[in-house]
Amino acid sequence: MAKPKPDYILFDKNTQAIVYGYQTRAVQRMLDFDYICRRETPSVAAIVAPTRSNGYHKCFWGNKEILIPVYRHFEEAVAKHPNADVMINFSSHRSAYPTTLDALETDTIRTIAIIAEGVPERYARKLAAIAKQKKKWIIGPATVGAIAAGAFKIGNAAGTLENIIRCKLYRPGSVAFVSTSGGLFNELNNIISQATNGVYEGVAVGGDLYPGSTFIDHCLRYEANPNIKMIVLLGELGGTDEYAVIEAIKAGKITKPIVAWCIGTCAKLFASEVQFGHAKARARGDLETADAKNNAFREAGVIVPNSFDELRRVIRETFEDLKAKGQIPEIVEPEVPPVPEDFAVAQAKGKVRRPTNFICTISDDRGEEATYVNVPISEVVEKGYSLGDVIGLLWLKCRLPKWASEFIEMCLKIVADHGPCVSGAHNAIVTARAGKDLVSSLVSGLLTIGPRFGGAIDGAAYYFRKFCNEGKTPRQMVDEMKAAGILIPGIGHRIKSVTNPDKRVELLKNYAKNNFPQTKYLDYALKVEKITTTKRGNLILNVDGCIGVLFVDMLNSCGFKAEEIDEIIEAGTLNAIFVLGRSIGIIGHILDQKRLKTPLYRHPWDDILYAIEPARNIGEQGK
Ligand code: ACO
Ligand code: LMR
After folding, report:
1. For ligand 2, is residue 494 a contact (CB within 6 Å)?
2. Mean of the pLDDT values across residues 130-152?
3. I need a surface site. Which of 149, 165, 415, 518 has the fewest CB within 10 A?
4. What is the rounded CA–CA span in Å between residue 93 and residue 119?
5. CATH class of 17-324
6. Whether residue 141 has a cis bond before it, omega within 30° of 0
């Protein structure tokens, strides 16, 4: 529990708040303020974010990072942080009532700032009444908050760090103020810091008709606080709250010098009643005009300037008078620790630079819409780019001719699936039946793609191109590969053969013959196939091999340089055609299993040859 403070102190250097609402900028501003005030603990004990789960919010404490706990429920935050006696309520005008009610009913919370505008008046009145009865404080609704210089500030009160430093709010002065307006809150900080030794505390009570605390509540606190030497009150037309202060002065309850001004004196220039910005700012009778209130202040002995412009002068004169009487203590100016500028801000101003960690040369999502190699997605759609065109852009960074992008699409369609027995589909089915999710099952299928299954396209492209480019005969290729002990990638199939030809390979060959400008590598591979199939009927140019050699023919015909083709093959681009295309089928099999609700698969014993020999003994055996 927080140490009890005197009644007149709402905030000191140990005050901690629970911020209701995920207001990360406001929290950071509070922590920056804490840091320059050299507080020992952050003024934000916890954040309540009803739409998030429990966790932490990372923010800066000077140039270090710290974690502020985040809770989904207010009760939990309160239970974990009994030290926090302030709740800064950023909830909307719709939920401000129940959330403030919760806070009022919490023993450890003493002060609540309600930031929202538009809280229904009957709710605001109820909250104010409960707060009074429970001897608690509400600041707002419709407020920017309050600041206790050098100690604690509510949310965004007092604006930017530069403003806070300019107004020396990092240490207390001798002047306290209370205003209606949050807008003029900063202006008062400015005026007071220039005309006096600075602000001790400032509160904006908010511009609603029924604020949770009023001028008199705060003026009486200021009167009781020996560190406050004079009071500034900035009211406005509308409402009668200023008269309570006038009564207290007349009754001798407030004796400290008060400088007061009510804005809205210009209302008399309008023919009819005028509603100013705040809900309260409308004179509902003669007593509520700014002039009437300023006159009443004057009559009660309050120092009232002739206009807002004179406010600074009269504050200065009043302060100088107190100083001359020896009532103002000397202030030793503290050294203010520098708060580093946020990187994003400094970068936007061009003040810092840093090397990037990543490079991207294919797409950009920073503009209004993402682009594929500078082509906006809407153009891709509106101009009817095919999937092959998109692959051309994102994989090869070029706009392919129609015959080439159609070829790529044809490959995708052709390799999309080859039944449930092939390695990839089988693995995915077993995984799905083990209850795994779609992505895991898909990945387990994709992981089977390799030099024997589906992943021979790059190898086929590499070897056929190499031997052909070196001017070697197909016979030389077969012999040299055999001598090297390498199976020719793209040759051979488990079930397809000369007598049971692979229809897919026929389709690809026909397409190339009819559409490609030339098919040099296909022709070479077919000559190799002639030789291998004389040895065994299944040593045909398979679908991987056919795609591989045709891809090289395509790149060649499109004018890609030799080094570029090397790079494309080496990067795995051609195998990627199989990976992408086969993903369609693998996903189909997974969905099929899910739909069929197939149970866990267990392989039958009789399908395994158990050939287990006794383990070899190596060296001395343990027990
Ligand atoms: N190049 C040269 N000779 C081969 C090749 C080849 N690619 N494939 C098989 N042979 C030879 C073998 O050396 C063996 O010869 P031998 O009888 O003198 O010992 C004979 O053909 C039979 O070999 P197997 O391995 O029994 O053939 P199998 O039918 O089991 O294998 C497979 C088929 C796995 C496709 C095999 O041919 C191969 O590895 N090919 C290369 C990789 C490839 O292209 N995979 C993609 C297939 S298509 C797809 O997955 C979508
Ligand atoms: C496939 O496309 O998956 C097949 O060619 C492989 C096979 O074993 O049939």
Report:
1. yes
2. 97
3. 518
4. 5
5. alpha beta
6. yes
Burial 238-258 (b: 16+ CB within 10 A, else e): bbebbbebbebbeeeebebbb
DSSP 604: -
Element (H, E) at 194: helix 183-195
Q: What is the dihedral of CA 513, 515, 516, 517, to 10 degrees?
A: 100
- Any idea which ligand is nearest the CA of 456? 1
pLDDT of 114 above 70: yes
456 lines ligand 1 (CB under 6 A): yes
Q: Please, what's the b/e burial string for 331-360 (b: 16 or more CB within 10 A of its CB; e: otherwise)?
A: eeeeeeeebeeeeeeeeeeeeeeeeeeeee
Query: How many angstroms separate the CA atoms of 201 and 302, rounded?
Result: 20
Q: Say if residue 1's pLDDT is above 60.
A: no
* 543 ligand 2 Cβ < 6 A: yes
- What is the residue with the minimal CA distance to atom 2 of ligand 2? 418
Residue 323 burial (C-beta neighbours within 10 Å; 0-12, 13-18, 19+): middle
Cβ of 418 closer than 6 Å to ligand 2, yes or no, is yes
Distance of alpha carbon 623 from alpha carbon 122, whole angstroms: 84
Q: Please state, in angstroms and as integers, the Cα–Cα distance from residue 474 to each residue in 51, 341, 471, 496, 533, following that order.
A: 68, 68, 9, 22, 13
Strand 146-148 and strand 44-48: the pairing is unpaired
Secondary structure of residue 114 in the 3-state scheme: strand
* Cβ atoms < 10 Å from Cβ of 20: 28
* Active-site choice (278, 418, 493, 589): 278
Q: Which residues contact 47 (CB under 8 A, 6 or more apart)?
A: 18, 19, 21, 22, 23, 27, 57, 68, 69, 70, 71, 77
Name the closest-CA residue to atom 8, ligand 1.
492
Written as one string, the DSSP assignment of 12-77 is -TT--EEEES--HHHHHHHHHHHHHTT-SS-SEEEEE-TTS-SEEEEEEETTEEEEEEEESSHHHH
Amino acid at 186: N
Q: Which residues are bridge partners to 138 per DSSP?
A: 112
- Is residue 493 part of the annotated active site? The answer reads no
Q: Check the CA dihedral 97-98-99-105 and report its sign.
A: positive
Look-up of token digits 């153009």: 379
CA of 411 to the centre of ligand 1 (A): 22
Domain boundaries, the chain: 17-324, 363-415, 423-596
Residue 546, ligand 2, Cβ within 6 A: no
Residue 611 CA to ligand 1 center (angstroms) comes to: 25
Strand pairing category for 363-364 and 371-372 = antiparallel
The alpha carbon of 453 and the centre of ligand 2 are apart by a number of angstroms equal to 7
pLDDT digits (tens, 9 = 90+) for 397-453: 999 999 999 999 999 999 999 999 999 999 999 999 999 999 999 999 999 999 999
Would you tell me how many other CB atoms lie within 10 Å of the CB of residue 69? 18
Q: Which amino acid is at 465?
A: R
HEC string of 443-464 equals HHHHCCCECCCECCHHHHHHHH
What confidence category does residue 286 fall into, taking pLDDT thresholds of 50, 70 and 90? confident
